[in-house]
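User: Predict the complex with nicotinamide-adenine-dinucleotide.
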Amino acid sequence: MHPTVKLQKSWFKEGHTKSYAFRKEQLLKMKKMLTTFEKPILNALKFDMNKSEYEAYASEIAFLKSEIDHHVKQLKTWMQPTKVKTPLTHTGSKNFIRKEPYGTVLVIAPWNYPVQLALAPVIGAIAAGNTVIIKPSELTPTVSWVLKKMIEQYFPPHFIAVIEGDKEVTQKLLEQPLDYIFFTGSVPVGKIIMEKASKQLIPVTLELGGKSPTIVHKDANIDLAAKRIVWGKFTNAGQTCIAPDYLYVHHEVKADLIRAMKKYIQQFYGENPLDNEEYTKIVNQTHFERVSAYLDSGTVVVGGSLDESKHKIAPTILDQVSWEDQVMKDEIFGPVLPVLTYHALDEAIDKINSRPKPLALYYFGENEVEQQRILNSISFGGGCINDTLYHIINPHLPFGGVGESGMGSYHGKRSFDTFTHEKSITKQTTRFDQNFRYPGSQLGMAVL
Ligand code: NAD
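Assistant: Here is the predicted structure with nicotinamide-adenine-dinucleotide placed in the model:
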C-alpha cells in the first residue's frame, strides 16, 4: 500500500475526524491557511497562467473562503442524524439516517482553476469527516508546489496530504484501496478514472467538461447578453469548464450581437488584448497550438491575433462556422467563440439534443414560455437564464454534470453529502413483537 494511504487509513480508523469540534477546527484552519498564503497563491497563479490578481482572488481564494464559511455555519445541522417516518409495519421502532465519512478520499484536480478545484472538494471531504489526498495538476507546477507547502504547514499528512505528479503518479494512486475518488478533468481521463475505480468498486464523482452552448434568442436584451457572454467566455482566457463554448444565435440578431460583443471585448481587454498585462495566457505550448488551430475554422470577425512567446490568444469570435469544423467537434477551452445561427428554437433544441449532454447551457431571451421550453427539453448539468457562469457561485445550487459531462455534484451542502455515507438504521423495540411477519401468519403476508 502507498505509505500515505496506509497512514491515513489507520489514522482514520482511530476516529479522530469524527467529532464536530475537530471538523470545524480544520475548516477554520483551512481558511487561515488561505489568508496566510494569499500572496504566494496569487504569485503562483500569475506565474503559471498570468492570472490577474483580481480574477485570481475572486475565482480561487474568495470562492473557497465563502465555501468554508457556508460549511462552518451549517455543519452542525448537516451532521445530525435525520429521523424518518415509521410505517405501520415498524410500529415501536425508531428509524433514522446516520451521516458517516467514507474514509480516505482522493481528489484529482485539473490546471484551469488549480487552487479552487483542488481545495473546494477538500472542504466538503473534511467537513464530512474524511482524510484527503490531493493530486494537483502537473501543468501548473508552481501552484502545485505552493499547494503542497501550505498543506504541509497547516495539516499533518495522516489527515491531508498533497502528492504531486503526472498521470503515472495518478494511476498508481488509483490502484490503492481508497474509499472515494473525486475527479475534475477531461472526459477521456474521466473514463479512465471510472474504469480504474470499478476494479475495486470505489465510488466516484466525475466533474468533466464538454461543449456548453449559449443560445441567444431574438427577444433577448442583446447588449446585456453580449456583456455577460464576453465576461463568461473570456474570463481566464476561456479556460473555464462552464465557459460558453459556442454561440447559437437567432439569425435576426446575430449582427447586432457580434457588434455588441466586439464593443465589450474592447472595453474589458483594450484595443490590443495581447499587451494587456491582466489577460490570462494559455497554460502551455501544447494547448496554445491546439487552440490556435481553431482559428482555421470559419472567418475571424473579432480578434484572431496571437503571441506565441507569451502564449496569448486575443479574445476571438468566429463567424461562418459549420458543425463539421474541428472547432465544433472538440471542447474549445480557450478564448475562441464560434457563432452558429438558427431560424426556429425547435431547430436549436434538436441540434443540441443530438450531441452529448453539456455541462452548462445558457439561454438569453425574455419570453418565459420559451425559457421553460429550453429547461424542459434539453438535459444539461446546470446553467443560467440571461447570464453565464453565475450559477456556480451560489452555494445553495449543487454543481455537476450529466451524461458525458459528469456524474455527481458538489458545492455547499451537496459537497458534505457527496463525501458522506448515509447509514440507514431501524432501532427496534424489544418491549413487544409483531407476529405478522413470521411464517404461518396470514395477516403478515398480506401486510408485507
Ligand atoms: P485532464 O483530464 O487532462 O487532467 C486532470 C487530472 O487528471 C490531472 O491531475 C492529471 O494529472 C490527471 N491525468 C491526466 N491524464 C491522466 C491519465 N491518463 N490517468 C490518470 N490521471 C490522469 O484535464 P485538464 O486538462 O487538467 O483540465 C481540463 C478539462 O477539465 C476540461 O475538459 C474541462 O472542461 C474539465 N474541467 C471540468 C471542471 C468541472 O468542474 N466539471 C472544472 C475544470 C475543468
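The CA atoms of residues 83 and 96 lie 4 Å apart.
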